[in-house]
């Protein structure tokens, strides 16, 4: 007999067997679940701005009585000018690091850049209090700069981004030829989006 807490957890975040003969139905509501398929174990997630289906473990050696699914990422794209506005600010404060959020309002379908006032900022790090979101507002893109050094995601970034659903972006070499990296953060899973996600 399952423990009541296990029942609650598995109800909130179930594992679904992908049908072999029937039609697979995408997750309709906000949340996430796991998919057991003949080609592996998958994470499926939906947010107001995101639909994701991505493999956690892929396999083909063991025959399983399930169907297959394929990768899918659908992300609402933030206006490019908001990213450019952040880059301009990051160049102004270089070599110090800085940060900002790009927030989407699902009710009004509007976007805004939320500059973040740092509690501390150095050429190696930036610390801040997380902004409060209003009703129907969603953090979609979390941006920070690296001043004069290269664009990469550090171990501290990995720790900070774990457990969230968002796009993370970092910009480096702001005093020269700009570098950028983007990734989708999905509850501890990091998916590389390259260097031109905003385009």
TrEMBL record:
Record carries keyword Zinc: yes
The DUF2016 domain, residue ranges: 3-74
Domain JAB intervals: 80-174
Keywords assigned by UniProt, alphabetized: Hydrolase, Metal-binding, Metalloprotease, Protease, Zinc
Top-level taxon of origin: Bacteria
Species of origin: Noviherbaspirillum album
Recorded coiled-coil stretches: none
InterPro entries per the UniProt record, alphabetical: DUF2016, JAB_dom_prok, PRTRC_protein-A
Acetylation listed as a keyword: no
Protein name as annotated: PRTRC system protein A
């Amino acid at each position: 007999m399952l423990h009541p807490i296990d029942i609650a957890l598995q109800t909130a975040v179930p594992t679904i067997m992908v049908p072999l003969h029937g039609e697979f139905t995408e997750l309709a509501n906000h949340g996430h679940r796991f998919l057991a398929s003949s080609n592996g174990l998958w994470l499926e997630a939906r947010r107001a701005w995101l639909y994701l289906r991505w493999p956690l473990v892929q396999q083909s050696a063991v025959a399983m009585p399930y169907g297959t699914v394929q990768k899918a990422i659908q992300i609402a794209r933030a206006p490019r000018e908001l990213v450019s506005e952040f880059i301009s600010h990051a160049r102004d404060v270089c070599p110090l690091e800085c940060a900002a959020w790009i927030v989407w309002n699902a009710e009004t379908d509007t976007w805004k850049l939320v500059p973040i006032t740092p509690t501390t900022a150095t050429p190696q790090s930036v610390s801040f209090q997380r902004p409060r979101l209003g009703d129907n507002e969603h953090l979609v893109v979390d941006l920070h700069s690296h001043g004069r050094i290269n664009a990469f995601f550090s171990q501290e970034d990995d720790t900070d981004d774990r457990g969230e659903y968002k796009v993370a972006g970092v910009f480096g070499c702001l005093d020269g030829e700009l570098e950028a990296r983007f990734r989708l953060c999905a509850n501890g899973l990091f998916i590389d989006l390259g260097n031109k996600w905003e385009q």
